[in-house]
Design brief:
This protein is α+β, with helices and mostly antiparallel strands. Helix content is 48%, strand content 19%. Strand 22 and strand 23 form a beta hairpin. Helix 1 packs antiparallel against helix 2 and helix 4 runs antiparallel to helix 5. The N and C termini lie far apart (106 Å). It is found in: Cell membrane.
């Protein structure tokens, strides 16, 4: 009876266990299925998104390479791990009695499952590492294009160092790292009861692994000499004066690498034989020899560097310095720079100004940083609009070539009231920004505000904008759904809002399975169940332009300053600069990390309305560009529209890198180059009341040998630890001359004022400093704008705008004065024209005589050249009135502020000179300018 009951219970228990086993398997299968679905949805939605932009082939190319490398990495790591674990288990079973081993090791099925699971986990890790790091290296290695230039030592094409060597190093390091990992596992396993001393199987296993390590170490050492061509590290403790191959590398480090490679192979063979024969002590002989030779090699390098190179460094490094100089210039495209002498004459005259009217008319009177505050207060109109940036560009306006400021009025719903932040509003209704503001760089109103060329809603002004809606921009935009049952808000018009519909088909259609897939991907079921989303609806995804281009082509480095362009047909696009960079360019000094080669070979446009992205080949001859063209043949557009090409800007980041490098590598004499005797650096200037390093800036000027003005990016140079200007570098931006770089050197035998010297003279000028001190009283702040060095024919003029801003939150920076400096003369006046006229009178006596002759004629207009009586008292009166005006603004007394401003304007009119322009009809009182919440007042100001 007991037997019967026991058997019955046992049967029920087995049945119960089987059921639970099946349930466990189902749960495990369900979890795996969910993981697969989760990753699959991401891949599928990414593919659909790329396909809507016609870049599906880019996605599949990258995915295919990652899958191939991922599978290879999984197999390599998993198989290697399984063999290692299997060998260890077999060694244990052979060495120990079954009673001495854990029972689990003797059961084949569970131990097999455990080994497979561990191997799979290690394989997944290896797969992620190899495909994540290696896919781009592999594609470049397979598709690379030669540079057509070889290094002077190994006579290898540059492409070997840029493409082949990184891939070979990657393979060697992966294999070496994996072999060392297996060795550590084996040491841990065979340390039990000192198995490595008595187990032949363990000894053989360790020997084979050590053999692989020796082989991979030999491969590493064989590749080492090629690496010496792109570093200045000669040993663990010292650096050479040369970037690239040096005397110590040539004499010690390269031969040492080959010796260590041979020793590594001998070491591997020796250890395998020693372990097979059981001679454990002899295993240490090659290891000690290898370590000893490595230490001796380091010591020899230190000795040679200290006692042979250092005492006579220039003589020893001279041939290598020449290669460093030559190849660095090639890597940064500096070897074609045209250098000319600039006389720096004292030749400014009225006739010269008239000959260069295009340059004079485009001298910047505004800076982008304070101008951004003005745009955000006067041209946003609603709390959900925002200007992120103000960029500089050039346009043909009414037949005139003019430099302009331009900013996009983007949508930012973070400041919407909380009750308005509904799903419908944030995803269906508020979908885009609207329009832009554009202003002259050289004109301001009587109140010191920008003079607009485009303003208001909808945009009105000098350019026709046919599609002012900005669905894509610099804001951190959320994904939105267009063409739903909800009308999209377009722009405010009086007390009403104007609505619109998206009229393009560049979004992701939310029909069929797409709606389910993207609802899951977005993590919102509102998209799936909402009756306001129809089969005609489209999802606009990844609307931030930087995220958008990075998602399409993550293998480029993008400039962080995109800029807006209004095309000839009135459509609006964003322009971005993409950089192609490389490491290991022989003999080239790096500018960031190990990166020592850079080109701006790709220009990217993103349509602000449709989101369409185009990658233009701006430099098709660049070997990196050609390599990427081989990898992604469908990514690039070769035909560049004229209205896009007309707005290409040479990027400031690239120019800064090149100009910084040229500060050292302009020296052609090797001894001067070695001693850095003629090192150039960027000057400093006072900007926003702080001394800061000057950045490159765009300006419009006529070069001495040209007939018309051009858009130039330029930077002055000063000698190291000096403030006088020694040279200036520029790069052309227009037409066929795009990218042509040039340098003008100033005479070394006399002083040419540098930017910081001009800044110091502004501070030391008694009249200017007195007036600025008056402005700064009463809670106002004087802001110094960018100091611009403007070359005009054979001379240089300096210009700096002065801003005044009160300390209250609603204040606006206003251009109140302009400083013009020339040679030993420096003046400040209400605008550039008056300041320039004063300078001309000081430096051109003939002009002064002409003015005197004019003064002899009867004229009732006041003479600006005569001193103003009681100037200090009048300035004090102006200062008191201005303080009262600022106080009224800070207290919100708009009417009182307007009355005070009327009094100030009346006082100014009494003192106004004949050549000072009257305020235009659209330049109204600043009492309204400082009320950003009053749209009517804002419109009057404009």
């Amino acid at each position: 009876m007991e037997i019967f009951d026991g058997g019955s219970g046992s049967g029920r228990k087995k049945t119960f266990n089987k059921k639970w086993n099946w349930i466990g398997y189902l749960v495990l299968a369900l979890i795996l299925a969910l993981i697969v679905i989760f990753f699959s949805i991401g891949l599928i939605t990414d593919y659909i998104w790329m396909d809507t932009l016609n870049y599906a082939s880019v996605f599949t190319t990258v995915l295919t390479s990652k899958i191939l490398l991922g599978v290879s990495g999984f197999v390599l790591f998993a198989v290697g791990t399984f063999i290692t674990l299997y060998w260890i288990r077999r060694s244990y079973i052979k060495h120990f009695d079954s009673s001495q081993l854990p029972p689990i090791l003797l059961r084949w099925k569970p131990v097999m499952l455990i080994m497979l699971a561990i191997s799979a986990l290690v394989g997944l890790f290896g797969s992620s590492v190899i495909q994540g790091i290696g896919w781009e290296r592999m594609l470049k290695f397979i598709n690379h294009v030669t540079f057509g230039k070889t290094d002077p030592y190994f006579n290898m094409d540059i492409s070997f160092y840029v493409y082949v060597l990184p891939f070979l190093n990657f393979v060697v390091f992966v294999l070496l790292g994996l072999a060392i990992f297996f060795l550590l596992v084996q040491i841990g396993a065979y340390s039990v009861f000192h198995m490595y001393r008595v187990s032949r199987s363990a000894q053989l296993h360790l020997g084979v692994t050590l053999g692989f390590i020796g082989l991979f170490l030999a491969g590493y050492h064989v590749l080492q000499p090629f690496g010496t061509l792109s570093t200045n590290q000669v040993n663990l403790f010292q650096e050479s004066v040369v970037t690239g191959l040096s005397y110590t590398d040539d004499v010690i480090n390269i031969p040492k690498s080959y010796v260590l490679a041979a020793v590594a192979i001998i070491m591997a063979v020796w250890m395998i034989v020693a372990l097979i024969r059981g001679r454990l002590r002899s295993v240490m002989i090659p290891i000690i020899a290898y370590i000893g030779l490595a230490v001796i090699g380091q010591g020899a390098s230190v000795v040679v560097q200290n006692f042979i190179v250092s005492p006579n460094e220039f003589s020893k490094e001279k041939p290598y310095l020449e290669d460093n100089l030559s190849y660095t210039k090639a890597a940064y495209d500096l070897d074609s720079i045209a250098e000319e002498q600039h006389p720096g004459n004292h030749s400014l005259s009225k006739e010269m100004v008239e000959r260069n009217s295009g340059t004079i008319d485009n001298v910047r009177m505004n800076d982008s940083r304070p101008l951004l505050d003005v745009y955000n207060q006067l041209q946003t109109f609603r709390t959900y609009y925002e200007f992120n940036d103000v960029d500089i560009d050039r346009y043909q306006v009414d037949g005139n070539y003019e430099q302009v400021f331009l900013g996009a009025r983007e949508l930012n719903t973070k400041d919407l009231p909380s009750q308005a932040k509904t799903w419908v509003n944030q995803n269906l209704r508020y979908t885009h920004g609207y329009g832009m503001a554009m202003s002259h760089v050289n004109q301001v109103t009587a109140q010191g505000q920008p003079k607009y060329m485009l303003k208001n809603l909808p945009p009105e002004g000098d350019l026709d904008v046919s599609r002012p809606q900005l669905y894509f921009g610099e804001e951190p935009y959320k994904n939105v759904i267009v063409n739903s049952e909800v009308e999209e808000f377009d722009y405010p018009s009086g007390d009403e809002n104007v609505d619109t519909k998206f009229k393009a088909d560049t979004g992701i259609p939310l029909s069929g399975i797409n709606r389910l897939l993207f609802a899951l991907n977005e993590g919102t079921f509102r998209m799936l169940i909402s009756d306001q989303v129809t089969s005609d609806s489209q999802l606009l995804a990844t609307r931030n332009i930087m995220d958008r281009v990075n998602r399409i082509a993550p293998f480029f480095t993008y400039d962080k300053d995109p800029y807006l362009v209004v095309r000839d047909d009135g459509t609006v696009v964003w322009m971005l600069d993409a950089y192609l960079s490389a490491e290991n360019y022989p003999y080239s000094e790096s500018f960031q990390g190990q990166t020592n080669y850079i080109r701006n070979s790709v220009k990217v446009s993103v349509d602000a309305y449709t989101g369409e992205v185009n990658f233009y080949m701006a430099n098709p001859d660049d070997p990196l560009m050609q390599t990427f063209k081989n990898i992604f043949p469908d990514l690039f557009t070769e035909d560049i529209p004229d209205d896009i090409k007309a707005h290409f800007r040479y990027p400031e980041k690239l120019f800064t890198v090149q100009a910084s490098m040229y500060g050292t590598y302009h020296m052609s004499d090797l001894e001067v180059f070695y001693n850095r005797e003629d090192f150039w650096q960027f000057p400093t200037e006072k900007y926003f009341n702080e001394d800061t390093e000057m950045e490159p800036y765009y300006t419009t000027l006529k070069l001495p040998d040209q007939e018309e003005e051009e858009f130039i990016l330029m930077i002055p140079y000063t000698p190291k630890n000096r403030q006088n200007m020694i040279a200036w570098m520029g790069v052309r931006n227009d037409g066929e001359n795009y990218g042509d770089m040039f340098v003008y050197r100033f005479p070394k035998q006399r002083n040419i004022y540098g930017p910081q010297q001009i800044e110091n003279r502004i501070n030391q000028d008694s009249e200017i400093s007195q007036e600025l001190n008056l402005w700064s009283q009463g809670g106002s702040e004087v802001i110094r704008g960018n100091l611009l060095a403007i070359p005009i024919e054979d001379t240089v003029l300096y210009v700096e705008p002065i801003y005044i801003e009160s300390n209250n939150e609603t204040s606006l920076p206003e251009v109140k004065r302009v400083v013009v400096a020339y040679e030993d003369q420096i003046v400040m006046d209400a605008n550039f024209d008056q300041a320039l006229e004063k300078i001309l009178k000081k430096v051109d006596p003939g002009m002064e005589d002409d003015e005197d002759q004019e003064d002899d004629k009867p004229d009732d207009t006041p003479d600006s050249s005569k001193p103003i009586l009681d100037a200090e008292e009048q300035l004090k009166e102006f200062s008191d009135k201005f303080k009262a005006y600022k106080q009224a603004l800070s207290e919100g007394n708009w009417q009182e502020a307007a009355e005070i401003m009327d009094e100030l304007e009346g006082m100014l009119e009494k003192k106004q000179t004949p050549d000072q322009p009257e305020p235009s009809d659209n330049q109204q009182s600043s009492g309204n300018n400082n009320n950003p919440n009053n749209s009517d007042a804002t419109n009057e100001t404009e």
